[in-house]
Hints:
The chain has helices spanning 2-11, 17-42, 46-55, 57-65, 70-91, 96-117, 125-130, 138-167, 169-174, 179-220, 224-249, 253-278.
Amino acid sequence: MDIMMGFEFIVEPFKYDFMVRSMYVAILVGIMLPLLGAYVINRNLGFMGDAMAHASFPGLVFGVMIGVSIFVVAIPVAILIALLIGFMINKTKIGEDTAIGITFSSLFALGFILLSIFDGVLLNIEDVLLGQILGVSDLDVLFTSILSLIVVLILFIFHKQFLFFSFDRKGAEVGGLNPNLLNNIYLVILSLAIMGSLQSVGIILVLSMLITPAAAAKILLKNFSRSMILGSLFGVIASMSGLYLSYYLDFPSGPSMALVATSIFIVVWVSKRTVSFRK
């Protein structure tokens, strides 16, 4: 009886098409973001991921304003933002954090200015900031699938180069690699991953799914490639668990995913500290 109840608890949400779409997207996001998050942590680029999410806001507003899917406009905008940040970092002497901060604050502010000018734009700010994965359409699923495939393929092709560049930029340059090109490629796929995740966790919480599962995996495993895989597993668990919390307890989906990811990190950190202390 208990087994049947447990099975019913797991499968009940899938009676609804919107939950099937949401779970599919949640799994893609849970895989994609922590894979990139491993590099983000290694290069101390947490602020970069947050900035890209915020800087995409004008693209979202413009997409809704002209009546097309947010992916159609926001993706090109996100790629341009990534290249702009890369250009500012590589070609100017203002510093990485400064370049990111200028882009982040100015474009996020521009998004709100556009909203105030075109007050007829039907854009729910709460959904933009916190995500609304339960509202994904078939087109959103398609776009997220394509973005996930592109991100994973590029990571697979350039993994060794990204890894070398992440640990030793000077050594990569001496070894014949082009650090600026690698940096731009990484920023572009990071922007694509963030765009594919905004509807799930929103602008504010995308950093949590990017960083937290990868950080938990890094605590447990020293091998970089294995920690990437474990981080994605943690990301999928967080995404799926957050959706179940949203369905059964009526919690907002994005914050639920972020808090589950944080809970996983806390459990891993405490467990690791406890084992280390006993030794």
